[in-house]
Design a protein that fits this description.
Elements (H helix, E strand, L loop, with lengths): L13 H26 L5 H18 L4 H20 L3 H31 L1
Helix pairs in contact: 1-2, 1-4, 2-3, 3-4
Length: 121
């Protein structure tokens, strides 16, 4: 039995979108900061917070599409935001974006499994 990852507790109102955006923003900011610490070194967390707002905002509007559409669009918007906020060259932007996706996938997969495990008990 699978666990639906989108609850319908408050409908599709503005509050639901706002809370979803804030959760996605915090998740993307935390994972981007971890990736930046790994790739760049010591960097202020405010940059990750600023850059993470873009993929969090875009993900709200494209979540209904297939992963083959969502992943490249989010990757591109994430790379553009990272490039402008961190002011990196193209190669370093690509490395940081790939590291961000790897860390986000690992942490997201772990959180999904924890939530699923807790829901079964």
């Amino acid at each position: 039995m699978g666990l639906p990852m989108q609850a319908d507790a408050s409908g599709a109102g503005l509050l639901a979108y706002l809370v979803t955006f804030l959760i996605a923003w915090v998740f993307y900011a935390a994972t981007l900061h971890l990736a930046a610490l790994y790739v760049i070194g010591d960097t202020p967390h405010q940059r990750a917070t600023l850059a993470a707002a873009v993929p969090a905002f875009v993900s709200l509007f494209i979540q209904q599409y297939e992963p083959l559409v969502v992943i490249p669009i989010l990757f591109l918007t994430d790379a553009v935001a990272i490039h402008f906020v961190y002011q990196l060259y193209a190669r370093m932007t690509l490395v940081l974006t790939l590291a961000h996706y790897a860390i986000a996938a690992i942490i997201g997969f772990a959180l999904y499994n924890i939530i699923t495990l807790l829901a079964l008990t």
